[in-house]
Amino acid sequence: MYVWPCAVVLAQYLWFHRRRLPGKAVLEIGAGVSLPGILAAKCGAEVILSDSSELPHCLEICHQSCQMNNLPWVHVIGLTWGHISQDLLALPPQDIILASDVFFEPEDFEDILSTVYFLMQRNPKVQVWSTYQVRSADWSLEALLYKWDMKCVHIPLESFDADKDDIAESALPGRHTVEMLVIFAKDSL
């Protein structure tokens, strides 16, 4: 399985903050091969992996990652961004939402943030730890974050020992870079 650089950078951030993870409720959205979620589970977090309910092969990859890492207690659910489903309604409040390179297509940004907003209603202190590949200077989350009453803080990769030359800028199409941000509700600070 190929692991995207964004997932590696997010996993590094998790490892840097591993002492904060035991007992935390963690949801990974758009999990794919689930590297960040698997690492969070190995560090003691109570993890739920999710990918689109419309892509059963993605959910199967999440299940395979759990099996390969001997994590039978990690739950895998189908969540389609922007849709209210039984699985979304049944989710307990989360402490951390992991989102590795989910901000890929601008037409998905609002669906992602509306799903996160729904989850923030259950725990206003939840944080979204997200990495993304910079693809276009024209794509911005700022207006949508404002619309959904959220803010974000950009996290310098060097602040958590990520080697920007070896991961964040390596072998990405067009020599794009990976960025890290934490999203939270405006009123949570």
TrEMBL record:
UniProt keyword annotation of Transferase present: yes
Gene Ontology terms for molecular function: DNA-binding transcription factor binding; heat shock protein binding; histone H3R17 methyltransferase activity; protein-arginine omega-N asymmetric methyltransferase activity
Keyword S-adenosyl-L-methionine set for record: yes
Subcellular compartments: Cytoplasm; Nucleus
GO cellular component: cytoplasm; female pronucleus; male pronucleus; protein-containing complex
EC class (word): transferase
UniProt catalytic activity: L-arginyl-[protein] + 2 S-adenosyl-L-methionine = N(omega),N(omega)-dimethyl-L-arginyl-[protein] + 2 S-adenosyl-L-homocysteine + 2 H(+)
UniProt keywords, alphabetically: Chromatin regulator, Cytoplasm, Developmental protein, Methyltransferase, Nucleus, S-adenosyl-L-methionine, Transferase
GO biological process, one term: epigenetic programing of male pronucleus
EC id: 2.1.1.319
Pfam families: Methyltransf_16
UniProt-listed PANTHER family: HEPATOCELLULAR CARCINOMA-ASSOCIATED ANTIGEN, HISTONE-ARGININE METHYLTRANSFERASE METTL23
Role this protein plays: Histone methyltransferase that dimethylates histone H3 at 'Arg-17', forming asymmetric dimethylarginine (H3R17me2a), leading to activate transcription via chromatin remodeling. Maternal factor involved in epigenetic chromatin reprogramming of the paternal genome in the zygote: mediates H3R17me2a, promoting histone H3.3 incorporation in the male pronucleus, leading to TET3 recruitment and subsequent DNA demethylation.
Subunit and partners: Interacts with HSPA5, HSP90B1, TUBULIN, UGGT1 and UGGT2. Interacts with TET3. Interacts with STPG4.
Family membership: Belongs to the methyltransferase superfamily. METTL23 family.
Protein name as catalogued: Histone-arginine methyltransferase METTL23
Species of origin: Sciurus vulgaris
Classification of source organism: Eukaryota, Metazoa, Chordata, Craniata, Vertebrata
Gene that produces this protein: METTL23
